[in-house]
Amino acid sequence: MSAIAGDDPIALFHLWFADAEKSEPALPNAVALATATPSAAPSVRMVLLKEVDARGFAFYTNLESRKATELKANPQAAMCFHWKSLHRQVRVEGRVEPVGDEEADDYFATRERLSQIGAWASKQSRPLEGRFELEKRVAEFTARFHVGRVPRPDFWSGFRLVPHAVEFWQQQSFRLHDRVVYHRRGDAWVTERLYP
Ligand SMILES: Cc1cc2nc3c(=O)[nH]c(=O)nc-3n(C[C@H](O)[C@H](O)[C@H](O)COP(=O)(O)O)c2cc1C
């Protein structure tokens, strides 16, 4: 890994992500997102990474969901990518910031219409009586937005995980894996190798 580990973890992430886009059979942008309550009880679920740049790793969700509720009370979060086809893992730790309204609008506009309706219909993470209740809500919002653009609900937006640490893990023989972790120090990054 020394040959590819430069001084910018985002640049390295882009290289690895491009590899994953070529080799993963499905959803290379699927990532486990860990959050925790203010009393430090953790929870984890998959989300889809929608953007990554020097600012961090962005994903979108319902703002009244469990994850969003936890993030509002405690913005510390972590992500873990696992690309099985490449025998690689990337771990990201930091704090989340809300994505700007305009950015969220722009992303929402790219979603398929039925996914946009779905965002309106789902009271994500709250109890549901049965499938019929959800289908009724989908029908209601389909009727409400039967013509024109579907606006982004104000309860649906994104978060950006602003990393203070990013670790790259590459499987090697005999469990002697390579691990390099980048720690943010002001505007720069310092790297450290870890035992496997
Ligand atoms: C591969 C995959 C991708 C997912 N992507 C998202 C996503 O981008 N946003 C989201 O809100 N939920 C996504 N989900 C559903 C979440 O895992 C989760 O069930 C939902 O967000 C509710 O989580 P919460 O109750 O912890 O808030 C995805 C699930 C899978 C399996």
Descriptive report:
The protein has 196 residues and is an alpha+beta fold. The chain has a single domain, classed as Roll (Pnp Oxidase, Chain A), CATH 2.30.110. Helices cover 29% and strands 37% of the residues. It contains 5 helices and 9 strands, in the order H-E-E-E-E-H-E-E-H-H-H-E-E-E. The protein has helices at 9-23, 66-73, 101-110, 113-121, 131-144; strands at 30-36, 42-48, 51-53, 56-62, 76-83, 88-98, 156-170, 178-185, 188-193. Strands 1, 2, 3, 4, 5, 6, 7, 8 and 9 form a 9-stranded antiparallel β-sheet that branches. Strand 7 and strand 8 form a beta hairpin. The longest helix is centred in the N-terminal third of the chain and has 15 residues, at 9-23. The radius of gyration is 19 Å and the shape is elongated. The model has no long low-confidence stretch (mean pLDDT 96). Flavin mononucleotide binds at residues 27, 30, 43, 45-48, 59-62, 65-67, 124-125.
Give me a quick take on this structure.
This protein is of the alpha+beta class and 196 residues long.
Topology:
Elements: H1 9-23, E1 30-36, E2 42-48, E3 51-53, E4 56-62, H2 66-73, E5 76-83, E6 88-98, H3 101-110, H4 113-121, H5 131-144, E7 156-170, E8 178-185, E9 188-193
Antiparallel strand pairs: 1-2, 1-5, 3-4, 4-7, 5-6, 6-7, 7-8, 8-9
Helix pairs in contact: 4-5
